[in-house]
Automatic annotation (TrEMBL):
Protein name per its UniProtKB record: Uncharacterized protein
Stretches that traverse the bilayer: 7-28
Keywords linked to the UniProt accession: Membrane, Transmembrane, Transmembrane helix
Higher taxonomy: unclassified sequences, metagenomes, organismal metagenomes
Length: 79
């Protein structure tokens, strides 16, 4: 039977494993998602991506409101 302790120094292995995990934790990129909703200030400078990875931009147009409140539909924000 071959003994692994003959080839691997256990304290050095554990120390280098811990150092490697700490280094990877420090240099890993931050994967936070930032949600940006369209506003009049950023409507023409930001490109948006939907759930299907399709990129699009928005165009602001002013429309008259309907007189009947039942004709106004609320569309939820896609998250």
């Amino acid at each position: 039977m071959i003994s692994l302790s003959k080839y691997i120094n256990v304290p050095v292995f554990i120390a280098t494993l811990v150092i490697g995990i700490i280094v990877m934790y420090v240099i890993m990129p931050d994967n936070r998602k930032i949600f940006v909703y369209p506003s009049p200030e950023n409507i023409d400078i930001i490109q948006y991506r939907d759930k299907t990875n399709g990129c699009f931009t928005m165009k602001q147009t002013e429309v008259p409101c309907p007189k009947n409140e039942k004709d106004i539909a609320k569309i939820p924000v896609q998250t």
